[in-house]
Here is the input.
Amino acid sequence: MSEKSLKIFLFLAILVNFYFTLAITPLFNLDEGAFSEATREMFVNHNFITTYLNGGLRFDKPILIYWLQALSTLIFGFNEFALRLPSALAATFWAGGIYFFTKKIFDEKKAIFAAFFMVTALQIGLIAKAAIADSLLNMFIAFSMFSLYIYLKEKKEKYLLLAFAFIGFGFLTKGPVAVLVPLATYFIYALIKKEFKQFLKDVFNIKGILIFLIIALPWYIAEYKQEGMKFIDGFFLKQNLKRFDTSFEHHKGSLFYYIPVVLIGFLPWTTLFIKYLAKIKEIIKNDFVLFGTIWFFFVFLFFSFSGTKLPHYVIYGYTPMFIFMALMFDRIKSEFLFSLPLILFTLTLLVLPFVLRDSLPHFKDFTKIAVITLLPYFNKFYFGILGFILVLSLMKFGKETKAVILGFSMIFILNFVGWIYSNVRAVPVKQAALYVKKHHIKNVVMYHLNTPSFDVYAKMIVEKRNPKQGDIVLTKVTNLKEFNYELLFKKGVIALIKIKPKIKINEPLNYIKDRRQ
Here is the structure.
């Protein structure tokens, strides 16, 4: 396949996976809803320094992603497309950075495939169009590492200064992790290369430090002036230091948590990743392979030992893996083994409806209702399209054509399954919020539920407390048995109700039935 044809497929993959599918689902909870609501409340509060969520201070992330989301919504309106667009643009530049860097140190065909593998990987497709900070952060981490490596090879200070600049923007996006990844990678690389003195000289480059401070420091100073020690305690101590030794929001896992995350996250290119691991002793003689390997394994091990574990943390080390996959692509001999990860994934999705249906009696109430809501979407189209993808994966086309087929198959599966899932978890929340807007309901209480996307669509701050008589309450359908209520809206696992007076024991049975209706 010609390089021109491959470039066209790369362009189409970016267009379809990052842009055409931006608004096919409502905002997902928790993260997308939280980021988007915090952006909305910036406009409500007329405060573009400090972010709030549901009326309370939110110190989870620095300001840059909120500013970009706010700018996007001013241009395109307050909707899913606008809120997710900054992530899609960041992912596009991230892919472009992979292409140009790989072309510079290897060749153009490897550059095209490295970018294509990144664009079509399962986990990248998830964060590339999510209204969260991770796509933007990964772009800045990748750019800082590329600049740093080019500096190490060419010894031109402008690349070192660029690295400081990108680290500064990363620090403004998600904080210390943007400094930690390049700093630790360069430190280990310098020790191996016996260039520790050069490392110290570069790290303490006065011009670089000034560039970093000019970019990152103004907002941190402004935020500290507004919130004082609450900001220091909430952001640096709680959201960064305590995340390493404490499990936040029950996001915990074993030391081996990230092994399945990586193997699934790299789909459909897991075979190429395994090939890299098998050949690591041979290819690590290349300086960039050494540098990129340190980069990946530092991230992998650091977050494996962290108290708080989330699947997207390990993505901070994914960028060099896509380049190494392009290096391994020529070494793959078996088209079947190349396709095997997607074959197994597709088979799992084909079997999943039967497993869920047969397991219904064993599920708890909430999960059972969610599965019952999900089952109708496993229809003839679902089995037909996945069956077609399975057949394509098993057929022989030639390795490059097969790579294109696998990549676009992954894009379709990701967005199709995401759309199905949204109809169980995201669509009901949005529709409940639109019901509230349509009927001009001014106050809603959220009970045993955390869905900030409701606030976004209803354009209101929602109280979280135990409901009282007369309250309009958004809750899970499994909580309805706790109340005497009037049902206003119900879909899937979500219900919107009005709390009625408690029924007295001595009331006639017929009267009780009437009040329940």
In short: Confidence is low (pLDDT under 50) at residues 511-517.
